[in-house]
Design brief:
The chain is of the alpha+beta class. The chain has one domain. It contains 10 helices and 8 strands. The protein has helices at about 1-15, 20-35, 40-50, 55, 60-75, 105-110, 150-160, 170-175, 215-225, 260-275, and strands spanning about 80-85, 90-100, 120-125, 130-140, 190-200, 205-210, 230-240, 240-250. Strands 1-2-4-3-7-8-6-5 form an 8-stranded antiparallel sheet.
Length: about 280
């Protein structure tokens, strides 16, 4: 979150008009990257079906990748793309599939089962029924740049989740554990859930604060899925022993209002976040 704020502020200070110019610059970059692969009409069709802030949030290389992944999906249940960001020293995983399959929960769950730390996430819901989930994973001794076995295992686990050959609860029961992963677990921090504001583009902003611990994002994703809440964007940050995650969300069922859900949602979220064993998360 801080890096994104810094990057945008720096660009604005150099050129106050840069924020308005950014979407157009991204669009140009996408056409340049795909001009020998796809007709202009196909690229335009993809951009029309993506969220309004898509070209502001995603870089041109990411957009080009998203288009390639969706076109390659065809009859496959999902496609998982992995790349290592040398500059930022993190791994970027991009999942493409048909929406409505709790894809964010499954990807976060598969990563949590390997005790991997998620640094950030973006979820792009396409209007024609596809979804792109992009998560950034911290580099550690397990995920060194030349260790590709871990990503093969993640892909195999996702395949079993999508085919319903296993469940996230079973996966959590046999998950990889490492010494010191529960660091700070004795800190008494009561979870807090706050609905911060309603934005003009119909997204509701929900802020979740709790003791930072492995599996926190998995627990949150589980509650959102149970309540039929769609996550459009996730901002993940840590302040000391606190995990502070902000989500831009909407409801699957537009006939239901957040006011009707909030009391039960908050109580359920706090209850799930207080669970110690990940295999006990329903």
């Amino acid at each position: 979150m801080l890096f994104e704020l810094y990057e945008r502020t720096l660009k604005y200070l150099h050129n106050p008009e840069s924020l308005d110019q950014h979407p157009q610059a991204t669009r140009v970059g996408v056409f340049k990257a795909l001009h020998r692969e796809l007709p202009v009409a196909d690229i335009e069709a993809h951009l029309r079906l993506m969220p309004e802030d898509y070209l502001m949030v995603a870089h041109s290389e990411e957009v080009a990748l998203h288009i390639r992944l969706i076109r390659s999906l065809k009859d496959k249940p999902f496609i998982l793309h992995h790349e290592f960001n040398e500059e930022g020293k993190f791994h970027n995983l991009t999942l493409s599939c048909v929406s409505g399959q709790e894809s964010f929960k499954k990807l976060v769950g598969a990563l949590t089962a390997k005790s991997l730390n998620i640094l950030g996430a973006h979820i792009y819901l396409k209007k024609d029924g596809y979804v792109i989930v992009s998560v950034q994973v911290e580099e550690n001794e397990i995920t060194t740049g030349d260790n590709f076995e871990i990503w093969k295992e993640i892909k195999l686990n996702l395949a079993e989740l999508f085919s319903k050959k296993t469940s996230l609860q079973k996966m959590m029961r046999s998950r990889t554990r490492y010494a010191g992963e529960q660091k700070g677990s004795h800190e008494a921090i009561v979870p807090r859930v706050q609905v911060e504001r309603e934005t003009a583009d119909t997204f509701t902003v929900i802020r979740v604060e709790a003791r930072d611990h492995l599996g926190m994002l998995y627990k949150i994703a589980s509650v959102f899925a149970d309540f039929g809440i769609l996550i459009h964007r996730a901002k993940i940050s840590t302040q000391g022993d606190r995990g502070i995650d902000v989500f831009y969300v909407s409801l699957k069922d537009q006939r239901v209002t957040f006011q009707k859900l909030m009391s039960r949602f908050k109580a359920n979220m706090i209850e799930i976040l207080m669970i110690e064993k990940l295999e006990d998360v329903p």
